[in-house]
Design the sequence.
């Protein structure tokens, strides 16, 4: 459950035997967890762990995600917790006795802690996102006791103490921020996952612990040995043997870019590649000389570089770290390039790095590692559109889009939040499934939200616990990375800045090697907060200056000094820059009628002089009556956030609800897990949840048949409500994606749409498309269709009864194909059909139908409540046949005269296990939805094409055959019965 398979029992033999292991996992020690007054004293599993996990293992609490435990377990937040490890086996080991230097390495402490070792004070730490390495040789040489003690202070109480100081800057309370969750007012002062204090899609557990692996590293005298390790900073796996060595690679950075490329200089695509390798090295010995050998074995190329000498106590650094660097120049034509999966092949190479250290004429110690990386250029284009482009139809202003390997492309994707409230128990299998789900739905970019955490590279790198960037590299999906600042004004006190600088440097260095990384953004949504608030505040200029000081003047130079391969931008949603060299933000220096940055203005104001022209934001409109009113949709170069919330499925609720009475849309427990809008305090249940519940309710009532109260089967009522909120969510998000995608052929030249959000942190109301367990929501299947390389979509403007049907393409080449538009009634009778041949230019759209007035749109003599349109498109894309299907109803489905579809669900073993044929024996089954049983995780695919398919219109005479592809690693039920698969449609909202 806690993802410890890679870390438990590592090198346990080194503690008692004669082996001279150089790395000792602290999880192999005996640990205890105690609270402040000593009334709780329980065994701990050791790093990686958090207090809630150990209390759960000890039976003192139940699973934190059950019921209302996010409320009943608040006492854990208020207490201070101490981890005590018995280091006596280590002190008795030969590994320690024969070492010349001993390091204590923490890859992550959450968050405020005093550390004592062998009775000696060692350090006080206050940053969850930093790696800490301490030379403890002298302290262990004269131990006062045999304990490693980590005293964790409540982050909540620490935050209150900091904000109570006289020298702490207070921020205006009338500024719109997301600082109004359960534990308000402190997170700006604590370098910790912001959403740990609460957010509108998740709980507020404010966990504490040593949440990533930790190690003793012993360094020997030179032996002339050769050591092979994993990618540093290493976290060894169970089967990995690390020989004794005089050196430890504390950090590594592998930055691959074009010759001459920098933050302000765009890559020249035919220039040579630069492979810039930097290692941070701890040593027990002064070495006379050192060299780095870099090898790409698949390309049969290698080169050796003389680098800085390595010393036991470097003069250049007070932290005992030697920095060695090699810069390798490779011709452009030698490697193949890495591409996102929908644009090419995510080509990866093994890069081998060998550090040779000479201590005498005959003694050379070597440390080698091999890591996977790739060659690509990624550029955030922010230059001004040329006069020629404006004359060709582009709205004046600046570009804001990404180029991959020199070409603009359409970024299709979603946003990532933390995968679990407790990082230490996140598993590689669960994260891989979420990332695979993104790829299966056609996404090529994920945004790592700045209120969460820095995502790890791999379980074996810097105590990652699970795999993220390496999977993105492999699957071919770009990762928009953010520094961890979100939705708040931030102080610029020295004690914070001196902690933030190493935090940022360490994480940028670690991520550099990943070709999937697309950029570093300074934070989330803060630019819009400060620029809109500053004019209203008495001291507004001061707060704006502080924002510029942090995100323009402080963070940008740090990031750009550590990487030349990816861009930096100040904020997730931004008006862009006035200049890259020198780096100067645009903020409100805009020209009326021009478009800058990402986010956008409402679509009816693209060229109008109004204050709203300067407000760039995401779209979260919870008035469902305008859900499909395009005049309320932003016009923007790129949209990085937009969403609407929904319920998780009945199956997810079953995982956490403990009483039959809880299974109701507005039960106390269900509404307690709706944090939108947030409570703004520790009041429980959320007093504002009724607003969020009403928004979902209203959406269903306006646009879908409202589920009736099935008195004889209340669970069915609840199930249909959950399903219906998901249908509306999918309809609304698909409409927005279509709007932004069609903007690639409009004046805004939109080249990005990232839906909020992909994953869930628990089982509750949220904006996600994939539930906490990994179960797909309706939206996730909806994204499959609207993220298709070629999609057809009806743009219906009700106020003037205009229908435009567009073919939208994200291909780099022109695409030809055929569109078929068929009107049917709800009995499934085809009333009329028309075909259109089309050609869509690169990154553009083509209109195949444009009509105004229902009289000219509907089949003759038909009413809008009785008919609907089935739209299909077929084309050859990348030497493969691509099809896409969408639906148009000229009125709300709440008004449609639906007919009993009489759905038949038949197992089809001839086509494979867990394959089903669906037939409508009566009328059309709008939003036909298959559910897989509890305890199973997987995806339904079309049995012929293999494309994920669910949530479709099932037409009489047009059977569908679906196959359930199960993820066995995540499924508790390994051999589900076909009888446990069920099907529903909108007809079930109002009929037994």
Sequence:
């Amino acid at each position: 459950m806690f993802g410890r398979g890679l870390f438990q029992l590592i090198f346990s033999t080194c503690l008692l035997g004669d082996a001279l292991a150089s790395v000792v996992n602290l999880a192999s020690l005996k640990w205890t967890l105690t609270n402040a007054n000593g009334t709780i004293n329980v065994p701990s599993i050791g790093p990686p762990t958090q207090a809630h996990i150990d209390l759960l293992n000890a039976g003192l609490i139940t699973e934190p995600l059950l019921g209302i435990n996010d409320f009943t377990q608040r006492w854990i937040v208020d207490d201070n917790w101490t981890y005590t490890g018995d280091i006596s086996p280590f002190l008795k080991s030969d590994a320690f006795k024969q070492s010349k230097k001993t390091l204590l390495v923490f890859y992550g402490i959450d968050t405020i802690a005093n550390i004592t070792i062998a009775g000696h004070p060692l350090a006080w730490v206050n940053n969850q996102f930093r790696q800490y390495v301490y030379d403890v040789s002298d302290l262990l040489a004269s131990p006062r006791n045999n304990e490693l003690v980590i005293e964790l202070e409540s982050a909540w109480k620490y935050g209150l103490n900091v904000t109570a100081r006289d020298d702490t800057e207070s921020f205006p309370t009338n500024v719109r921020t997301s600082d109004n969750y359960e534990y308000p007012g402190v997170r700006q002062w604590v370098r910790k996952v912001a959403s740990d204090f609460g957010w509108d899609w998740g709980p507020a557990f404010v966990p504490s612990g040593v949440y990533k692996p930790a190690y003793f590293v012993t360094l020997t005298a030179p032996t002339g040995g050769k050591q092979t390790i994993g990618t540093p900073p290493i976290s060894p796996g169970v089967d990995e043997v690390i020989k004794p060595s005089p050196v430890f690679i504390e950090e590594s950075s592998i930055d691959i870019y074009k010759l001459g490329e920098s933050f302000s200089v765009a890559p020249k695509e035919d220039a040579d590649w630069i492979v810039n390798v930097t290692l941070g090295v701890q040593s027990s010995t002064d070495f006379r000389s050192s060299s780095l050998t870099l090898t790409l074995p698949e390309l049969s190329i290698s080169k050796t570089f003389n680098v800085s000498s390595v010393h036991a106590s470097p003069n250049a650094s007070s932290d005992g770290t030697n920095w060695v660097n090699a810069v390798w120049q490779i011709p452009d034509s030698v490697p193949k390039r890495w591409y996102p999966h929908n644009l090419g092949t995510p080509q990866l190479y093994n890069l081998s790095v060998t550090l040779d250290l000479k201590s005498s004429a005959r003694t050379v110690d070597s440390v080698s590692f091999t890591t996977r990386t790739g060659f690509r250029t990624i550029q955030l284009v922010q230059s001004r559109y040329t006069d020629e482009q404006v004359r060709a139809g582009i709205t004046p202003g600046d570009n804001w889009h990404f180029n991959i390997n020199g070409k603009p492309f359409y970024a299709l994707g979603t946003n990532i939040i933390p995968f679990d409230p407790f990082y230490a128990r996140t598993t590689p299998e669960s994260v891989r499934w979420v990332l695979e789900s993104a790829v299966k739905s056609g996404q090529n970019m994920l945004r790592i939200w700045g209120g969460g955490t820095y995502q790890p590279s791999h379980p074996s790198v810097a105590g990652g616990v699970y795999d993220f960037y390496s999977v993105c590299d492999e699957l071919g999906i770009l990762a928009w990375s953010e520094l961890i600042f979100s939705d708040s004004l931030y102080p610029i006190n020295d004690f914070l800045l001196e902690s933030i600088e190493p935090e940022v440097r360490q994480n940028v260095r670690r991520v550099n090697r990943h070709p999937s990384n697309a950029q570093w953004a300074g934070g989330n949504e803060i630019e819009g907060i400060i620029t809109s608030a500053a004019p209203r505040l008495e001291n507004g200029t001061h707060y704006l200056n502080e924002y510029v000081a942090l995100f323009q003047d402080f963070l940008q130079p740090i990031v750009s000094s550590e990487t030349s391969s990816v861009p930096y931008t100040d904020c997730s949603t931004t008006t862009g820059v006035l200049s890259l060299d020198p780096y100067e933000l645009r903020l409100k220096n805009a020209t009326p009628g021009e478009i800058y940055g990402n986010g956008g203005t409402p679509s009816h104001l693209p060229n109008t002089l109004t204050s709203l022209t300067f407000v760039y934001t995401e779209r979260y409109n919870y008035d469902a009556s305008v859900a499909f009113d395009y005049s309320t949709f932003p016009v923007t170069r790129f949209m990085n956030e937009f969403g609407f919330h929904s319920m998780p499925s009945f199956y997810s609720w079953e995982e956490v609800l403990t009483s039959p009475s809880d299974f109701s849309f507005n039960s106390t427990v269900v509404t307690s897990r709706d944090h939108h809008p947030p409570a703004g305090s520790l009041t429980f249940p959320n007093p504002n949840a009724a607003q969020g519940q009403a928004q979902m309710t209203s959406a269903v009532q306006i646009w879908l048949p409202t589920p009736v109260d099935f008195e004889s089967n209340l669970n069915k009522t609840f199930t249909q409500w959950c399903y219906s909120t998901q249908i509306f969510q999918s309809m609304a998000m698909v409409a927005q994606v279509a709007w932004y995608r069609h903007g690639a052929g409009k004046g805004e030249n939109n080249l990005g749409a990232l839906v909020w959000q992909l994953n869930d942190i628990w089982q509750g109301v949220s904006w996600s498309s994939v539930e906490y367990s990994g179960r797909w929501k309706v939206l996730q299947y909806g994204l499959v269709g609207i993220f298709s390389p070629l999609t057809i979509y009806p743009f219906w403007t009700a106020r003037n009864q205009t229908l435009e049907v567009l073919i939208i393409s994200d291909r780099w080449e022109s695409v030809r194909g055929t569109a078929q538009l068929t009107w049917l009634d709800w009995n499934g009778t085809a009333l009329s059909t028309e075909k259109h041949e089309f050609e869509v230019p690169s990154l553009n759209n083509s209109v195949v139908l444009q009509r105004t007035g229902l009289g000219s749109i509907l089949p003759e003599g038909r009413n809008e409540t009785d008919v609907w349109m089935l739209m299909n498109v077929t084309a050859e894309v990348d030497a493969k046949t691509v099809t896409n299907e969408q639906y148009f109803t000229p009125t709300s489905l709440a008004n449609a005269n639906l007919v009993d579809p009489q759905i038949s669900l038949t197992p089809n073993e001839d086509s494979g296990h867990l394959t089903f044929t669906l037939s409508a024996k009566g009328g059309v089954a709008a939003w036909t939805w298959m559910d897989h049983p509890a305890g199973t995780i997987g995806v339904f695919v079309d049995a012929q094409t293999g494309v994920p398919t669910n949530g479709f219109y099932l037409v009489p005479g047009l059977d569908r055959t679906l196959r359930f592809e199960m993820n066995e690693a995540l499924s508790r039920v390994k051999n589900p019965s076909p009888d446990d698969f069920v099907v529903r449609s909108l007809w079930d909202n109002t009929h037994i």
Notes: DSSP finds 20 helices and 45 strands in the chain. The CA atoms of residues 234 and 255 lie 18 Å apart. The chain has a mean pLDDT of 93.
